[in-house]
Amino acid sequence: MKRAFVTTILSALAIALTTAASGQEGGFRGSFITPFPANDVYQVQVMGDRLADGLLNGMLEPTAGGARVNIQRRRWDLAGIMHRGSTRDLAKIESAFAGDRPHIVIVMLGARDRFSLSSKRLRSRNEEWRKMYAKRVDRLMKALKQGNRAVYWVGLPNMRRRRDNERARLMNDIIREHAYLNGVRFIDAHASFVDDGLGYSPYGPDVTGRIRRLRDSDGVHFTHAGYRKLAHFVQRELKRDLVQARREQAIPLAGSSAEQARINPNRARLRAEDAKSKEKRAGKKARNAAGAPGNAGGQKANHGRVDLKVRNQNGLEEIVTVELVRPAISAAVIALVTRKERPDRPSQMGGVLVDQISGGLTVMSSIIPPVSAGAGRHKTSPTQTPYFRVLEKGERLTPRPGRADDVTWPKPQETAEVQSKPVLKKVGERRRSKR
């Protein structure tokens, strides 16, 4: 009998530990936030008391996560979970959050709940109050976690009065434990606002590092700078999970076509269009082959495709297929462009222009310069004209001697004149001496 009882206890502990690990680590095996929100926009709802109201105002200044996050500007008012009407409020939350929205809920409350824990109960660690508070916290977390919704619970901060601070720490312990069991992110605000001696201080560094007043005169709430710092810790956790969700959007799944379409809708559309156009291309090739039976020496149509990785407006990588069109060229056209200027040498086929485009691709284009009328030489290639080289490529042409843009010094002409004068003088002196 005793051995069976011990075995039952060990089994229960194993199940509890497995449940706890699966509840908290469920977001770490994948994305804590759903990678596929409706319309690719995350809806965020802040819930709680006056502390949550100040937190919401701090989060609205720099919007977390960019344009893909929409924070509701009105908080869900929940003064507490230990007053008489809390059971009715919890039932209302369970009904309202049974749908798909919002995707993210941020909770902060407990400033009023601390009054339900008297000093006598605090000293005796009244188990009845602890069980009731833990039961309601657990119920609220389960209601918000419906549909794998991401829930962030901000704990109570440290408080000025010793009695209030002990109450806050007791409530944080209960919230932290059930957040672990239900897969909720717990953000420790108590440890984020203590001073160097791990005590209470109304002053401290703000988000920019300046020492400012962060706490209100009541020793519980925050100033505007304090709420902004509190929002910073919440946004830091939120941004990390949003980055992980965006990474999972770009992971290709070896799943059904519906999963592939959700990950990369443009690629799925291109594949569908490509499948429809295959028959058209095949029929067109057959018609070209049938309509040109005497195309001996010509070039057949040879189309190709290239898959490029690009980023869309949301910063996600997509694969776009680009079709390279190589139409058929008849033998008459080839004979025309390869005409001979002389019987022993064909004409020049022109030059090749090479250009680098985004994505690490190289584009090459062949240019056949036209033959000038009345002359056997080709005109200058369009890319070698002074206009294109100066205004398009930004090159600096070598100036001609004596032209206005020739800034060389000394001038070659003046140097030649200076060197020639002594020679002329000597020749004249020789003539006069002969006479």
What are the salient characteristics of this protein?
435 residues; alpha/beta; 3 domains; six-stranded parallel sheet; two-stranded antiparallel sheet
What does it look like?
This protein has 435 residues and is an alpha/beta fold. It has 3 domains: 14-251, Rossmann fold, CATH 3.40.50.1110; 261-288 and 298-347, no CATH class; 352-370 and 379-400, no CATH class. The chain is built from 12 helices and 14 strands. It has helices spanning 2-29, 50-59, 86-96, 119-124, 127-144, 162-182, 224-249, 257-263, 265-291, 331-337, 386-392, 412-434, and strands at residues 42-48, 69-71, 76-77, 104-108, 150-154, 185-187, 203-205, 211-213, 304-311, 317-324, 340-342, 345-346, 351-357, 361-367. The strands form 5 sheets. Strands 1, 2, 3, 4, 5 and 6 form a 6-stranded parallel beta sheet that branches. A hairpin with a 2-residue loop joins strand 11 (340-342) and strand 12. Helix 3 (86-96) runs parallel beside helix 5 (127-144). It starts with a helix and ends with a helix. Residues 4-29 and 372-376 have low confidence and may be disordered.
In short:
The protein is built from twelve helices and 14 strands.
Broad CATH class of the largest domain? Alpha Beta
Query: CATH homologous superfamily name of the largest domain?
Result: SGNH hydrolase
Low-confidence stretches: 4-29, 372-376
Helix/strand structural class: alpha/beta
Number of domains: 3
**Shape call:** elongated
CATH architecture of the largest domain: 3-Layer(aba) Sandwich
Report mean pLDDT, rounded to a whole number: 76
Q: Determine the N-to-C terminus distance.
A: 152 Å
Per the CATH scheme, the topology name of the largest domain is: Rossmann fold
Largest sheet composition: 6 strands, parallel
* Alpha-carbon Rg, integer: 40 Å
Give the fraction of residues assigned to helices: 40-55%
**Number of discrete helical segments:** 12
Strand content: 15-25%
The count of DSSP E runs of length 2 or more, i.e. the number of strands, is: 14
SSE topology string: HEHEEHEHHEHEEEHHHEEHEEEEHH
